Amino acid sequence: MAKYEEFPRIKRLPQYVFAVVNELKAKMRREGEDIIDFGMGNPDLTPAPHIIEKLCESAKKPHTHRYSMSQGIPRLRKAICDFYERQYGVKLDPEEEAIMTIGSKEGISHLMIAMLEPGDIALVPSPRYPIHYYAPVIAGASVLTVPLPLEGTDSEKQEQFLRNIYTSYEDSYPQPKVLILNFPNNPTTMVVTKEFFKEIVDFAKKKNLWIIHDFAYADLCFDGYKAPSILEIDGAKDVAVELYSMTKGFSMAGWRVGFVLGNPTIVYNLKRLKSYLDYGTFTPIQVASVIALDSDYSIVEKTRDIYSRRLDILVEGLNRAGWKVEKPKATMFLWAKIPPQFKDMNSVDFSMKLLKEAKVAVAPGAGFGEHGEGYVRFAVVENEKRIRQAVRNIKKFLRQYS
Ligand SMILES: Cc1ncc(COP(=O)(O)O)c(C=O)c1O
Fold first, then answer.
1. Rounded percentage of the chain residues whose pLDDT exceeds 90
2. CA atoms within a 13 Å half-sphere pointing along the CA-CB vector of 158
3. How far from the centroid of its chain's Cα atoms is residue 228's Cα?
C-alpha cells in the first residue's frame, strides 16, 4: 500500500518488479551476507584516465560553471556526428540531426512527451527495458505490446518479430504513432541485421510510423560481431531517430551523456521541449565527452573485451554446472531460461531462491514485461573472480535439486 495518496500519473507507474528482489538483497547485506550482484546493468568499470583528466581540467576553469546548453555544446554535437561517420559511415548534421540528452533514459522519456498525446498509441516490444514502456505511459499515451520472440535462430526470431509488428499495427485502432526498438536488446540480447532495419524502415514509411531505436549497446558486441545502426539504412532519417549512449561502451553511466540522432523533425521538437526543461549536462562533462568520442576506439574495445571475457566465464561455468545457456553476440547480459527443475516457479520466486540459497542476485524476467516470465537476466558487472565464485555457488545450489 502506498504511504501517500498517488497522483493520477504516478498511479500509472507501478512499483518496479525488481523492488522485491532488491529489498531481500539489501536485507541480506545488512545481515552480513556477501551477495554477488548481477541484478542491475550498472557498469562497474571506469572511463579511460584521459577523459577523467579532461573533466577535472575543464571543471577548474571559471567559465564552465554557468548554465550549459540543453541541446549540447556545438563541439559535442560535432564529435558525435564525426563518431557516427567513422563507425557507421552515417553522415549527420550537428545542427539539425543531433541533440544531446541527459543519458538515453531522459532522452526517450522527453521524446515521448514531445511526440505523444493521450489517445496516441506506441508499439513497444515485450520483454523490454522498463522505460520503453513507461515513457509513453508518462506521456499519457497507450501502449500496445509486441511480443519479442525468445526461441529459435536469430533469423527466425527476426522474421517472427517483423510479423508480430505488422499484426499489432494492423490490429490497432487508431493507428500507432511510434514504434520503439532496441537492438542489441536488453534484456533478451537479441540482435538484428541491416535487412531487418530495411524492412521496418520501408514499413514505417508506408504507414507514417515513427521509429525510435535505442542503441544503448552499440559498442558492446563480441567475437567479431558488429551491431548495425538503423541510420545506415538509406532513407532511415525520414522516419527514425537513434538513441546513442556513452553509458556502456565508454563506462560513463553516472555522467549522463546520450544523444538523439537522425530525423530533423523529431530532433527539432525535442530541442524545443528540452529548452523549457533543462540547461543541459554540466559543461565539463560535455567537454570531456568530446575527448572521449574523439579518442581512439581501442578504449571502447578494452571495455567490450572485459565484458566478453566475463560472459565467457559465466556461460562456460553455468553450462558445466548443468544450466544450459548460450553466449550472447552483444550487450552485457546473459538472458537465461530458468532451469527445467524449477520450471513451475515464476521468475521472481526463482530469483529470490537463487539469492537466498546461492547468494547470487539476478533480475527476474517478469520485471521486463509479462513475456519475460520464465527467464532471468544476469548483468556481468562483477569481476572475473566473483563470477567464478558465483558459478561455484550456483553449481552447489543446482546439485541439491538435480
Ligand atoms: C536499453 C537501454 N536503454 C537505455 C539505458 C539507459 O542508458 P542511459 O544511461 O544512457 O540513460 C539502458 C541502461 O541499462 C538500457 O539497457
1. 95
2. 16
3. 15
Residue 146 · residue 370 · CB < 8 Å? no
Alpha helices in 141-238 (DSSP H): 154-171, 194-207
Q: Is residue 322 part of a domain?
A: yes
Instruction: Give the strands of the sheet with 121-126, arranged side by side.
Output: 98-101, 258-262, 240-245, 210-214, 178-181, 121-126, 142-147
The mean per-residue pLDDT over the stretch 87-100 comes to: 98
Together in a domain, 307 and 266: no
pLDDT digits (tens, 9 = 90+) for 361-386: 999 999 999 999 999 999 999 999 99
Q: Is 256 left (phi over 0), alpha (psi -120 to 50) or beta?
A: left
> What is the tens place of the pLDDT at every residue in 72-90?
999 999 999 999 999 999 9
Q: How many domains does the chain have?
A: 2
CB 105 near ligand 1, within 6 Å: yes
Domain that holds residue 338: 8-46+299-397
Ligand 1 near 103 CB (within 6 A): yes
Query: 104 CA to middle of ligand 1, Å?
Result: 6
Range 267-288 average pLDDT? 96
Residue nearest to atom 13 of ligand 1 (CA): 41
Q: Is the CB of 245 under 6 A from ligand 1?
A: yes
pTM for this entry: 0.97
Domain boundary among 294, 314, 338: 294
Torsion of CA 134, 135, 140, 141, to 10 degrees: -90
CATH code of residue 162: 3.40.640.10
Contact 173, 142 (CB under 8 A): no
Counts of helices then strands in the chain (DSSP H, E) = 13, 12
